[in-house]
Every structure is written in structure tokens, then in C-alpha cells.
TrEMBL record:
Gene3D superfamilies: Glycogen Phosphorylase B. InterPro entries: UDP_glucos_trans. Keywords: Glycosyltransferase, Transferase. This is Glycosyltransferase. It comes from the Eukaryota. It comes from Brassica campestris (Field mustard). Signal peptide: none annotated. GO terms for cellular component: cytoplasm. One of its GO terms (molecular function) is quercetin 7-O-glucosyltransferase activity. Belongs to the UDP-glycosyltransferase family.
Amino acid sequence: MEKRNKTRVILFPLPLQGCINPMLQLAKILFSRGFSITIIHTLFNAPKSSDHPLFTFLQIPDGLSESQTQSRDVLLQLTLLNNNCENPLRECLTKLIKGSGTEEGGEISCLIDDSGWVFTQSVADSFNLPRFVLCAYKFTFFLRHLLVPQLRREGFLPFPDSEAEDSVPTFQPLRKKDLARIMGNKDQAEPLDDYLFKILETTKPASGLIVMSCEELDRDSLSESHKVFTFPIYPIGPPHIHDVPASSSSLFEPDQSCIPWLNTRETRSVIYVSLGSIVTITESQFLEIACGLRQTNLSFLWVVRPGSVQGRDWIESLPSGFMDGKGKIVKWAPQLDVLAHRATGGFLTHNGWNSTLESICEGVPMISLPFVWDQLLNARFVSDVWRIGIHLEGRIERREIERAVTRLMVEPEGEEIRERVNVLRDEVRRSVQRGGSSSRYLDELVDRITSF
């Protein structure tokens, strides 16, 4: 651990699990380089400060009602948060800057916030505070999803059913059916396009973009970035494998009994199933996944969040005797430990970027079941570009689940996939080692922050 250099960095995460994780991982990386860390956060989905005792946490009001915090409309939540949080953030920064320069506080160098905050550039400018934008997506998605309003204006939708499997030249390797899901329905079009336009316009004036990916996974899109952005871009990921002390950044309490249970299983014999922190499924889909897993006759560890099965509290829909010694169902899992465990042989995943990175870094092949947003692009890279997984193509049917798991875990095809993911794992892990691409970009980022 380096000596504190009395320079303080302010971080402001978007209050979604997939955004909080990389922001807190970045905080740990910068702390290891000697910076003092202050996290400004909303009341909604507040991170657990006791897990990070060396950071300063400051909570601001977000104005969300209880019903709004429970909404499954993420775009609505993000719109409300952006509308409600500008003044509270401004007031919080005013107090911080007044105390800046004291022995305890340290000089404030910059603000780092998520790309989903669209008011923070003007706030940072009012304090003459350099602002870095954190991109928690695969950079390919970040660059391309800003084109959605243009594609809509050009009449991408609708298209004939016969073209559903066609590729989208401006959004490779997506297929038209994938992009249609990202673009949403008519009611979502105007608010989504307005939000994406604001993201683009408020990212352009920033001092730089911090990307939680690496050259090895995003080389093509990084080489094209100069067409959109003129500032430096720092691909320093994957953040969780940098040499910093581990700590939890989960909004949910992981069930630690997963690990002793995995200890009793054979090497690479368990299929791990988790659809992330936001996805919900119908009871019918839940039962199809359950039956598909059981029919494989393989061991499985399945994360089912309370409330993630629509109309049910948890897993009461399962028939009695379902587990039958083969499976274990938990409300949340210590995912990094599960993926790193010798018994885990595959991952049935929604392909959120954090989960995709974590699986690659442990050499665990995937079965892709994406639902929304960047998950659809990540899944295409997994199945079609890197060829380190099997895509379910949205078919949540017991026979499809059983077949995909069997192909991955038992058949020769699975061994070929495993060999490819191990090669990619090694390439990605080298990126954070001294002299690797992510390590070099991190050095550049540290130098830039220190220069302010």
C-alpha cells in the first residue's frame, strides 16, 4: 500500500448493483495508489460503508418514493434520480471543497462519476473540478448505444421477421432482433433517445473516460473512439483482478454456505446459475429453468433473488423433493468465490458486464440468457466472437436448458469452449500485470489525476 499523497478523489456511483461494483473497485485501486477516497452516494441502494472502512461515505437525498425504489422501470428511476440529485450533489461538494486542503480532508483532485449521471459535468464545471466519466459497460456497447437515436431516425424499426437474424453493420455483432430489444417500444423511444443524447453531450466535455474493460476485449472499439471523443480513454479493467485487497460491494447479503457445499462436489461438475440483480422472470420461466436443470442430472448452484420470480416471494413454486441432493438454491451468492472454485464448470448467466468479466477471468465457460440492454451485446461476443459459450437465443424451455447445459458440461463441444475461454482468461489476466495494457493505462490515469 502506497503512502497517502493527500490528494482526494470524489466518486459518485449510479445506484445500481452493476454500477456500484466497478466504482467501488476503482476506489480500491486508486486508494492502493495513495489517493484518499470519498464516496458520495444516494439513499437508494446505498453501499455498505462498513465494508470499506478506509473510505469516507457521504449520503445525499435522492427524492425517490418507496414505490419508485421498487419500480422495475430502470429508465424511469434513472430519470428521476438525475432530476432529483443535482442540488444535493452541489451542496455536498460545496461543503467538501470548503474543507479541502485540511490535513484530514486533503486537496480534492477530481470527480469521477458514472456515465448515467447527466448533470454532473455542469456541477463539476461550476467548481472548476475536473470530471472523469466511468464506463461500466463493455466499451463496444458504450460507443454503439449512443447511435440508437440516429438508428431510430433512419428508420431501423420496424423490419420484416425474415431479417430478425441479420447482423447490424453499425452495431456488430448484434442481430436485428437484439437491437430491437435494446431500442425498446414506442413508449420508451422518446425518453430513451433523450437520455442517450444527454449522456453523449455530457461525456464529451469530460477530462477522460475510465473503461472497465481492456484492450484485449475491446481493441476495435477503442481504436475507433477518436471519431466520437477527443479526450484520453483509460481501459483499466477488469477491475476486480488488480492487486488490491478484496472486499464486498454487493447490495445483497451473499450466502456463504455455497462454498462448503461446492467443496463436496467434483471438479468442474457444477453448473452455476445467476441472472443478476435486476432481471425478473415469470413463474412459468422459473419452472422451465428448474426442470431443465433437474433433467441434466448434474449438480447446480442456483441464485434466485427474493422477488425475482414475478408474483412469488421466492421458490415456493417448486415441487416438493425438487432438490433431491443434486442442487442448491440461494438468495445471493459470493459470485467471485463461486466462479473461482474448482467445482464450478459452467455459468448460466444474463451476461451483465461484471458477470461476463468475472467468468472470463476464472476461465468459466458460459450459457447466455440475456434479457436487456448491454447484456444482449455481451452475449453475442461470448457466443459468436470469442466462442466461449452457448447462446440460448431467449428460449427458456426445459429441453433447451437441458441441452445447453449438457453440451457445455458433458460433451466434447464443451471442452473446446473451455480451451478457448482459458486462452482468453490468460490474455485478460496479463493485461493487469506490470507492463500489461491495463496496468499501463492505470499508470497514465494516476499521473493525470495527480497533475490537477
